[in-house]
Amino acid sequence: MMRPLRKAFIGWMVFIVMAACFPHGPVSLSNAAKAETAADGEAQFRNIDLFVAGTEGYHTFRIPTVLTTMDGTLLAFAEGRKNSASDTGDIDLVLKRSMDGGTTWGSLQTVCDMGADTCGNPTAVQDESNGRIWLFMNHNYGEDTIEEINNGTSRGVRTIWSAYSDDDGASWSEPVNRFEEVQPPDIRWDATGPAIGIQLRHGPNQGRLVIPAIGRNIQSDDHGLTWYQSGYIQGDTNEATVVELTDGTLMRNDRLSANKERKRRAISTSRDQGATWSPVYYAPELIDPVVQASIVRYLPADNDLGSRLLVFANPASENVRENMTVRLSHDDGATWPVAKTVYSGHSAYSSLTVLPDGTIGLLFEGGGYTPYDKIMFATFNLAWFETEDVQLDGLVFSEGSLSPVFRSDIEHYRLTLYEGSEAVTVTPIASKAGVEIEIAGEPAAPGIPRTIRLGELDKLLVTARLGHRTRTYTIELDRSRPRPELLLHWDFEQVSVGGVTDVTGRGHTGLLKNGAAILPGAVRSDGQGHVLHLDAMQRSHVEITKADDLHFGTGDFTFATWVNPETLSRQRHLLIWYGTAGRGVPQWWMSVEQNGAVRMNLNGLPLNREIGIATPSGLVKTGEWTHVAGVRQGGNLLVYVNGELAATSAQFDGAAMNVTNEDAPPLVGFDKGTVANRDWSGSLDDVRIYRHALDPSDIRKLYQLPFDAAAPVTEAVVTPNEPDGMNGWYTSDVTVELTAADQGSKVTYTEYRLNGGEWTNYSGAVSVSAEGITTMEYRGRDGAGNVEETRTLVLPIDKTEPELTVTPNLEVLWPPNRKWVPMEIRLDPKDESSGIDSIALVSVTTEGTPDPLEGIRDADIGTADTSFQLLAANHRRGEKRAYIITYEARDKAGHSTTKTITVEVARTVKEDER
């Protein structure tokens, strides 16, 4: 954990930061108080999207750099890549400015546009003596790749340029080529930063401007009038960042260009302000997937408090660009004891800054699909490092497409559902103990699915609580998405003379060419059925006929099939090719690469953009069945393997990707390219093409379909295990536990409803306490989409005794003339649960006589007798006689109640009648 920091100490630290940022005047005490609050008050964290791929005229934004000026303006630089995510091509340097600490941002500015060429790797520093901001950058011809530049076959080389601003970034000078000043004449590939430079505060060269570059720094001792190179650093590193330590030592923190298997940051130091450098060593705590990183001082190197606090950021993973993490060092980078994740998803390059109020800013690449979907800007204070975040690790929806992909620090989403969707099942995932969860206002448990009936809902709220901290995720519901339309389906079980039958009935017959054959075999474990077999040696393939409805233009579509390659011996093996081959020709295709990766490529007009994505290698193996699916959804391509998302593209401009091409029919298994030796070799099964994009849950069902055609089986266990009353009635509360089993794709959720009410997701034992007959219906659903036939459980419960009212026709017998008086008893039994089962006359007795039955005639005890006679006579000694009449009512559950009444005989003539 971070060592405790006293509020007053941090307040003065921030005061010094502000003084350094505003050297031309003192900082007010009110500002210092605000800074103290920001640094050590309530934990603060905020993350926004700043540059989003496919917007503002650019295909992709990359390489973030952020600088806080002395006047407190935030300058956020990035590469605006016009036509693709490639490192070369038409790339501009763009800028957004914020005057309020990153809360709001101005419109996009272009700092460098060299036509179709590349202008990139922004690296910025401000000269505190005069306020001038220097921006270094790199240029190369757009058609030159890094490989061509390095091997000497390119048109030109990579050169270093600079521009400056004297008005806080509002305007910029024309870039100037610095090649002759700062680059050896024989260099071919070079790069600055990217991120920020520094200005020295120690030693004989105090005020020196320093820009990190490959293998050395670029320096100026005359405020930018001239620039030159520092001493060289041990080779095999690049993409550097530099920081000045409190004793004046310079420390470089570099990405590895060799020895990459170390997966650590390369560190070197200079004690003579850059003239010479120590050998490189590798920081054990700074794990790195070989990517650019950023480092910054929290306080200036010459701060009066002697603070040695450094801040470092990178994707903290050894193998994947993900988990953007910020670390703190209290000893000038000797150790890094504090680490906290800013963004757990895909992430890559970053740039750190310290704002005037003491909060830390991080501009970084990341996204839900790839590390390059967008550039985000996060701000947080030191107190945030000491606070345990309340968050969910995931939200899984049974239906629909969530945008963006769920990440714990993003609080607003859109769930796009098919038209007519009535319910969705949500499974919250939280690994942190103690997190309390609510879905739509009702308690939920981590890992337990909860089915929500949507009704008129337009948004769904999911709340996570940990102690006094709360985070609410808002999911906007969009139920306007058209349901996918299955346009083509070959199951290879129906073959005619004309070819493979399209079982959708749309007539997309598959014409078997060059020895393409339908052979016995199937994906299913029972091996029953038929598959398509193609032989690459014969160039066998299948032609799709009547393709008029397969021209998708800029619309969404899905291609899915099972593949079983006999060989993966060539660069790639084509599964389907729509359109015609060639540069600038609308087309799309999918293939399995030689290394077992799955690739999908799209090329569209009018901007002639090509988008290509590939999964990791080894997902498809020879001799094994694998399900693959390619989806175009809005501005993204997605590739699924065995039901799971395996690759995604950065967002692109869908309107610029019209793929319609009617010049040639789509071909399955055939290479239309000029190479013409990349045909499919092996088997295919269950080929499908949909209009519109399938949801992830739909893709998963296609994968599970061949293996699971049976619905789950749910068993209900009732406690008590048998009715404890009569006639099948329970006389106490009942608990029902549901257990669902599925041998195929496993149970995704079980739901129940009581007495025809709303279906509820089963999350634990259900207690039924309502008296009367409760009908409980329940069913399960598996991952293949099989829904169990609804089962019914009848639970009769009666916990209450019946009511009974007994009313005699006479309450007093008069006169006592020893005559027999007829008695008529009216009985009113009542039971609202199980109902009255029986009524019986239990007894009729008299008190004060040796024989309790004296004076009673025709009473049929043990029956429902209500008519009998009583003798109107007192006792022989003249004492008043009373008859005691008792009835019992019993309900069908076995509960009984008795009611006793008394009928008296008047003893003598009434006193008032004498």
Automatic annotation (TrEMBL):
It is an enzyme of class 3 (hydrolase). Gene3D superfamilies: 2.120.10.10, 2.60.120.200, 3.30.1920.20. Its EC number is 3.2.1.18. Keywords: Disulfide bond, Signal. SMART domains: LamGL. Residues 1-19 form the signal peptide. Residues 555-697 form the LamG-like jellyroll fold domain. InterPro entries: Cadherin-like_domain, ConA-like_dom_sf, Ig-like_OmpL47-like, LamG-like, Sialidase, Sialidase_fam, Sialidase_sf. It catalyses: Hydrolysis of alpha-(2->3)-, alpha-(2->6)-, alpha-(2->8)- glycosidic linkages of terminal sialic acid residues in oligosaccharides, glycoproteins, glycolipids, colominic acid and synthetic substrates. Belongs to the glycosyl hydrolase 33 family. This is exo-alpha-sialidase.
